[in-house]
Write a structure and sequence with these properties.
This protein has a two-stranded parallel ribbon. The chain has one domain (about 1-70). By secondary structure, it is mainly α. The protein is built from 4 helices and 2 strands. The model has no long low-confidence stretch (mean pLDDT about 80).
Length: about 70
Amino acid sequence: MLLAGLRKHDGTDSQAWRNSRRRVGLGKFLAGGRVVPVGLETCKAAGILCGKAGTADIVDATVAVMAADLGAII
């Protein structure tokens, strides 16, 4: 099952529900995942990634860092 391996942090849920009319399907999908705490090292790496990429989307950067650490596909 796809959701069995889904890991996320709370920020992904927050971002998914920003515009609930457009993202209701995504919000429901994410409701089935396991929340993984975001530690200081992940936060630092996400901030560095944002700086290098020239973006301010810290939630996406955090997801990318977490996925890279797990060897996961996003």
